[in-house]
C-alpha cells in the first residue's frame, strides 16, 4: 500500500511521528529525578508544543487535507 501513497504525505507523516517521539523523549528526560516541588515549577514554565514545532504544526494538517481532496 506504500506504492499508492503520495511521497509528500508519507514525508509529512514521518515528520509528525519524529516530532512526537522527540517531545516524548524530552518530557521523559525532564521528569527523571524530579521532586514534587520541581513539578510545580515545571508547570509554570511549560514550553507549548506549538512553539517547539513552529509553523510546521499548522502546515501539516492543512497539507494532508489538501491531499485527501485530490
How far from one another are the termini?
18 Å
Give the oligomer, counting copies of the same chain as homo and different chains as hetero.
single chain
Number of domains: 1
- Give a count of the beta strands, DSSP E runs of length 2 or more: 0
If you average the pLDDT, what whole number results?
66
Q: Write down the secondary-structure element order.
A: HHHH
Roughly what percent helix? over 70%
Class inferred from helices and paired strands = mainly alpha
What composes the largest sheet?
none
How would the blueprint of this fold be written?
Blueprint (H helix, E strand, L loop, with lengths): L6 H25 L4 H9 L4 H5 L2 H14 L1
Helix pairs in contact: 1-4
The gist of it:
This protein is an all-alpha fold and 70 residues long. It has helices at residues 7-31, 36-44, 49-53, 56-69. The chain has one domain.
Overview of the molecule:
By secondary structure, the protein is mostly helical. The protein has one domain (2-69). It has helices at residues 7-31, 36-44, 49-53, 56-69. The longest helix has 25 residues, at 7-31. The chain starts with 6 loop residues before the first helix and ends with a helix.
Provide tags for this entry.
70 residues, mainly alpha, 76% helix
Amino acid at each position: 500500500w506504500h506504492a499508492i501513497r503520495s511521497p509528500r504525505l508519507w514525508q509529512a507523516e514521518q515528520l509528525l511521528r519524529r516530532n512526537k517521539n522527540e517531545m516524548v523523549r524530552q518530557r521523559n528526560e525532564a521528569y527523571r529525578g524530579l521532586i514534587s516541588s520541581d513539578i510545580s515549577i515545571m508547570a509554570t514554565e511549560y514550553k507549548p508544543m506549538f512553539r517547539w514545532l513552529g509553523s510546521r504544526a499548522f502546515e501539516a494538517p492543512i497539507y494532508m487535507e489538501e491531499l485527501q481532496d485530490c
